[in-house]
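Help wanted!
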Amino acid sequence: MKRGWQAASVALAATFAYFAFESFQLSLRDALGPGPGFFPFWLGMLGAALAVFLLTQLHLDRVDLGTEALVFDRAGVRNAVLVLVGLIVATALLEVVGFRLSMLLLIPYLLVVLDVRNWVAVAICAVAGSFGVYHVFFDLLKVPLPAGIFGF
Amino acid sequence: MEGLQLLLSGFVAALSLQNLLFAFAGCILGTLIGVLPGLGPAAGTAILIPLTFHLDATGAIIMLAAIYYGAMYGGTITSVLINVPGEAASVVTCLDGYQMAQQGRAGTALGIAAIGSFVGGIFAAVALAIVALPLARFALAFGPPEFFSLMFVGLCLVTGLAGQSLVAALLMTILGLLLSLIGIDPVRGAPRFTFGVPELYDGLGFVPVVMGLFGVAEILLIIETPFRRMGDTKIKGLWPSREEWKRSSGAIGRGTLIGFLLGLIPGVGAVIPTFMAYIIEKRLSKHPERFGTGVIEGVASPETANNAYANGAMVPLLVLGVPSSPTIAILMGAFIINGLTPGPFLFKEHPDLVWTVIASFFTGNVILLILNLPLVGLWAKLLKMPYQYLCAGTLLFCILGAYSLKGTVFDVGVMLVFGVIGYFLRKLGMPLAPAVLALILGPFMEKSLRTSLEMSAGDFSIFLTRPISATLMGCAALVIAVSAFQISALKSLRTAESK
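Answered by r_m:
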């Protein structure tokens, strides 16, 4: 757990430093009062200082992180990564092949990755989740959804 | 008297067929979300926001509020039947609820939970209707310094109560505030932190970020560690016996009061009122040793407090524009999407909407009671649904919701990025509530701060020279000092225990 918190503190310190640096490029004050950089600059500075403080406290073992260890279940993480990859690909395809086709591919992929082997159920979910959902949201609720290059 | 008249006109609108249908749909969807383990009210409300995009503002808010308190009740069903809380506030219900189910009294546990939730919800709605107008009138006297101080104290409360490390909670608050500032500066029109990406000029969408942090992250965690499925628990006899009624009535009364009062304080969250109601009930009991073995008071008090809190938490949102929990912050986001800013001006500018929404809390609680008592067996059957279908369905809704907000794939990408961030932050036990509240309050805070400093020609003492603002700033300092003291005392105690 400690390593995880240290990594998070470093990431946060870097993020806040970036915000402070970028804000400094904007004006902190102008004729009317505080400029666009004022609030984010001081927030970034405070955040970076606190992240460094947390890092120091972690180094000195002064942060009570409880007894729980940071556990990653290997098979579970593999499934989570595969699901995430599927989501990224489906997102990339969303406006290219349209909502219906991308969901028609994504839903069976997700179910198979998650160990569903009932092919009838997979097929029903795929059609309901793509064409069914599109019909409800696009045709009935008028929610804009992409059609894709094939026009459907 | 004026409040009563406005409430009556609100009832006329809330009882229209259309608004009743919205409340009904919200209660069903909310209970469904609460029933499905893993999906909390925050994730559920965020995922279902797109359903309301094409409704009128009143209908959208009524439906989302009903989803919220429906989810708060739905979590009870899993707590009682499979000892898995559907949302954090139902954790304490597991202690006696599950024991009751093991003794064949699952029906009574669910019945008293539904009745307690109804009483708590109705009382809180009555109290909300009474205090809303005077409080809103008082808040109309607030200027930018007072609003800044109010939001500051709200964030301090959320930060102070957020978790094991005050510094980590502060870091999450600052992260949320900074993320909320991405986009065009609202005062001078300068682009900030946009990396030249035109989609970021409008800022990070609140809905995709919250869907990622709660919805996608939650699903990734479920995929990593799937939850148990329900066994065959029989549900019969929902109505408590006379003896059980006698024991529950006091618990319901106390739970109502505790839940409502704690709902008024931003940052308390739904967990504290339920635990407090349970602990008080145990302390007052002649047989405290029976708590945890399946006593009905152990279900009645926290469940009542839970729903009274859910409705009570609407007071700071509607009257002051300060959300008290991530789910309420999402509701505030829904107001903003519909072009409305919660706070005292809402009562002045959109009284019809506000009072219809308040009246809908009454109708919603009645619908919830009608739904929950006879349909509890049906809800229980849903627990047998394999988690794989739940995950696939939720992710589908996340993509649909993130895309349909602005019709851009960019928002889906934002949701996925924040899903991964949320997954790691939750694995580490970093508090997300302060980040979400800061994300919604950030733009308002910055505007109030800058306007205040323009009023005072850059003099920060404006926050301390105006009485209301100074009082609020004093409260904020006190909250942070008390939180730091509590965390340090807890740490010393654990160190002493380990030695």
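OP: Thanks! One thing I noticed: Chain B touches chain A through 67 residues (CB under 8 Å).
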